Structure formats: C-alpha cells, structure tokens
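wait is this the right file?? whatever heres the structure
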C-alpha cells in the first residue's frame, strides 16, 4: 500500500523534529541532490554538467539551494534563478559559498532567463512547495510558461511540481512537467491525484522519519491485490462464490452488456444472471451467462451491476432502479446514473466519468461542467459521495475512489490506450465481480481500477487494443498475481 498525506499533515509532523533541532532540510536536500546526480550519471557525466535551479521564496527554494550547494561541490555547474526578492538567507549563502552562479529573474528578464535555463542538462523546480497558496504568479509564471513553450526540459521537482496543490492535485496556472518528483517526509496526496499526477513523473521518496497521522489517500499495490482478491476454496461451488445479477444493454447498445458480462466472467464470477432485452437474451450472451427472471426481485443474487448500455428502455430502467433500491451491493454505471435516487446506502458504488459526474452534481443543485471535474477531481468526487451516500469511482487516467465515509484511493496503472469505447463496461464487470464476491465497495472499486489498468497495459503492449482485449487480459493479470500461491 502506498500512503499519501496532505501538505499540512507533513508540515505538522515536521514541527516537533525541527523544534528538537533536527536538520530536516539537510536530509531533504541530500536526497534531492542524489536524485539529480543519479540522473546526470545515467545520461553521461556529473563533473562539468550543468543544472539550473528555479528558486522560490520559501523553504522549497531552500531545499533546492542546499541541493545546489552539494551539486556544486561535486563539480556540477549550478545556476540558481531567483524568482523573487525574498530567498532563504542561510541556504543562499551556502549555495554561493560553494561557487554557484546566481541570476535574478527581475534583472535578467523572462526571455533571457528562460533560454539560460533551457541550456542546462537538468532543471530543478524549487519555486513552491507545501506552503504554496495558488499557482505561480507574475514573472515566475511567465518564466515557466516560456520554459513550457521551449519544451524538452529534464525537470526534477523539489517536493512537488510548483503550482500543483499538495493536498488535492489541483493545478493552478502553468506547471513545469517533471520527469521525477523527489518528495520529502511523506508522499503528498496531490502527487497521486489528477491532474497533478500528470506533472509529477516518477516519484522518489526521501524519508524524514516523521510520525505521520492516518493517510489522506491510499494506493493499492500488488501485495494488496493478492491479499484481498477473492479466490475459491476447496468447498466452494458456483453459488457460494457469489452470484452477480447484471442489468445491461438495450437494443441500441447491445455491446455494452457483452463487455460488462465478459469483464465479470474474466474477473472470476462463477455465476451471472442476466436481465435485458429479449434479442440479447436470445442468442447474444456468452454461453456461461444464465438468463435471469425478468424482475429484479425474482432473482437470487449477492450483488447487482446495472446501467452499461441502458438507454431509452423503460423496462431496463425499472430494473436498474429496483436493483439500486434492493439493499444489496450494487454498481450503478452509465445509464443507471441519471436514475440514482437522492440518497442511497453505502452498499452502492457509482462509476461516472468526468462528464457524467458533472451532470450528476448539476442535477443535485451544484452546476458543474466536465472541465471543473477535470480541474479538481478529488473535490468533485468527494462532493458526489457526500451528496449521494455512494462510493464514487471517478474514471480517468488516474482513477479516484471516494467512499461516503471520506476514504480516498487512487489508482493509475493504466495506459492512455485504455481510453477506448467499452473500456468502462469492462471495468464495471470487474467491479461487479468483486462486489458479488463480498468485497467491501471502496476496496472493490480500487482493486477493480488497478486490475483494469494492468489488463489494459497487458492487452495494449504499447499499441492499440479493444475493450474485449482488456477483458481477455484480466485472467492473465490475475494468474501472474497468484503465481506461487497455493
Ligand atoms: N521546514 C523544513 O525544515 C522542511 C521543509 N521542507 C520544504 O519546505 C517546503 C515548504 O516550505 P514553505 O516555506 O512552508 O513553503 P514554500 O516553499 O512552498 O513557499 C512558501 C512561500 O512562498 C510564498 N507563496 C505562497 N504561494 C505563492 C504563490 N502562489 N506565488 C508566489 N509566492 C507564493 C509564501 O509567501 P507569503 O508570505 O505570501 O505566504 C511563502 O513565503 C516543502 O515543500 C519542502 O520542500 C523540506 O520538506 C524539509 C523540511
Ligand atoms: K517545487
């Protein structure tokens, strides 16, 4: 499990150590300098290479300056570009004493400073850290905009990319995209949330031995999947492993039902009862799927998956609503989202994409558009969980899961190739399988997101794939996970 924290929590945890005289900044700077040295070494040479350091007014800038001091002492040509009048005095003095060059943005101007920075082998972004309020401003923002336009820079972010909110991953204004972020004391939640994660590159962690509170966000890893993924025991039979009821598809969208069923079967559901249009029941179902009784109440299942491909079909919509109101664990996706009652119980999971979440919030008196959700995914997913009472899985390159109790997960194992029609239906199938097997909704949502992403990577192999291909890859992902386990 990867745990991440708010910037405030990390700062609070630093406080007692700082009061006891522990030089945390020296440890942070040492970690940052080592990351830079490693990059320089792997791309050629350390001695005589050049590093530009973008320096802000606070301790984030100080970390970068102290790292610059260490780099200068190793023979790296370092240039600190001071973004503001204010700078951490002792760090600045140490940097200068080690022979670093200083450039003041206010004197050198944006264009000159940008071309100077762009010539460096590596750039360290030490403009803003956990003390930031909002994004980069004024000439510093212009400098970063100019650097983004030049492009192709190898940037290492100090603690977090400047302009990314440490707690929420929100991005304000321009941000330099990093190849690596070296983060101190605790991984900041904003580094694992969209859109901030997209700017962070690889995340390296420098431990400062802090006593941290409960995590603000958790990300499952391979061990968590292995520990929690349901596997049949010797005495299990097809009913005891959990039966999933599926309400999916319509005459207009038969494929969505197929993909959701395929996803659920691939993820290990041993028994599925399907409710849908006669045309689909008559011949289009996978052979393993059992046609269910026509009403929700007449089917014995352990969980429901409702909504994929449900459109303009009163009978299917009735079934979706009955399943949502059944009190059983239920995943409501796509066509079931507009049918969601005002409040539901914590056994319900909803799986909107950004546009669907915006529509859901707007229907509940919070006018929202897709771009709002994309800008601050966590905030909107959290609001939806509070308003509906459901666990919310917000789809995207980084998937965010928020439970009505406020637990937050994020998963990002996927590949951009996953953005293909039907991909979400397969995800729904995987999640439905986990709910039917009795996995608690927030954990099920995070596990499904993880396995869906892994299956996408496997199916893609670096190139295009189909949603069916994602489902086909799921058993292989699970086989690799279970390898060596009895
Ligand atoms: N304390 C330690 O020993 C350690 C700190 N670490 C590093 O410290 C930063 C957090 O440092 P902090 O000084 O609290 O914050 P910042 O460096 O992010 O900078 C805050 C200063 O910047 C000004 N500010 C705030 N927002 C903006 C903005 N949008 N544009 C321009 N300037 C801004 C703010 O000034 P105000 O007076 O206006 O509030 C602050 O002066 C942390 O990220 C680590 O890198 C290490 O972890 C080691 C231990
Ligand atoms: K930074």
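ok assuming it is, sequence goes like this
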């Amino acid at each position: 499990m990867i745990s991440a924290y708010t910037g405030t929590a990390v700062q609070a945890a630093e406080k007692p150590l700082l009061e006891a005289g522990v030089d945390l900044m020296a440890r942070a700077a040492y970690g940052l300098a080592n990351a830079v040295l490693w990059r320089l070494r792997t791309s050629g040479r350390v001695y005589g290479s050049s590093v530009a350091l973008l320096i802000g007014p606070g301790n984030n800038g100080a970390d970068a300056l102290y790292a610059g001091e260490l780099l200068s002492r190793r023979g790296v040509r370092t240039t600190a570009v001071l973004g503001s009048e204010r700078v951490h005095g002792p760090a600045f003095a140490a940097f200068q004493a080690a022979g670093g060059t200083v450039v003041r943005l206010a004197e050198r101007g944006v264009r000159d400073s940008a071309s100077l920075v762009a010539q460096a082998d590596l750039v360290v972004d030490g403009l803003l850290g956990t003390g930031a309020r909002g994004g980069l401003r004024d000439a510093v923002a212009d400098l970063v905009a100019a650097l983004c336009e030049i492009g192709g820079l190898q940037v290492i972010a100090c603690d977090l990319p400047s302009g990314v909110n440490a707690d929420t991953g929100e991005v304000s204004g321009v941000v330099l995209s990093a190849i690596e972020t070296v983060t101190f004391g605790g991984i900041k939640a904003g580094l694992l949330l969209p859109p901030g994660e997209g700017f962070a590159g690889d995340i390296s962690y420098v431990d400062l031995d802090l006593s941290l509170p409960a995590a603000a966000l958790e990300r499952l890893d391979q061990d968590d999947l292995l520990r929690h993924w349901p596997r049949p025991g010797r005495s299990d039979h097809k009913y005891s492993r959990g039966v999933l009821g599926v309400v999916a598809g319509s005459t207009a969208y038969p494929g969505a039902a197929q993909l959701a069923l395929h996803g659920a079967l691939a993820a290990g559901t041993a028994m599925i009862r399907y409710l849908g249009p006669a045309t689909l029941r008559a011949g289009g179902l996978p052979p393993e799927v059992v046609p269910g009784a026509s009403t929700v109440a007449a089917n014995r299942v352990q969980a429901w998956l409702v909504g994929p491909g449900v459109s303009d079909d009163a009978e299917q919509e009735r079934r979706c609503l009955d399943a949502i109101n059944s009190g059983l664990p239920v995943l409501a996706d796509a066509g079931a989202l507009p049918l969601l009652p005002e409040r539901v119980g914590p056994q319900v999971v909803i799986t909107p994409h950004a546009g669907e979440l915006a529509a859901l919030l707007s229907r509940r008196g919070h006018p929202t558009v897709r771009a709002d959700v994309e800008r601050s995914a966590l905030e909107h997913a959290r609001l939806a969980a509070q308003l509906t009472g459901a666990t919310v899985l917000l789809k995207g390159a980084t998937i965010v899961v928020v439970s009505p109790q406020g637990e937050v997960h994020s998963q990002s194992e996927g590949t951009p190739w996953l953005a293909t029609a039907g991909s979400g239906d397969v995800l729904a199938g995987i999640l439905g399988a986990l709910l039917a097997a009795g996995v608690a909704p927030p954990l099920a949502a995070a596990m499904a997101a993880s396995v869906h992403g892994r299956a996408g990577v496997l199916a893609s192999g670096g190139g295009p794939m189909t949603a069916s291909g994602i489902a086909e890859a799921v058993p292989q992902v699970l086989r690799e996970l279970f390898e060596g386990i009895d």
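The two ends are 23 Å apart (CA to CA). so i think its the right one actually
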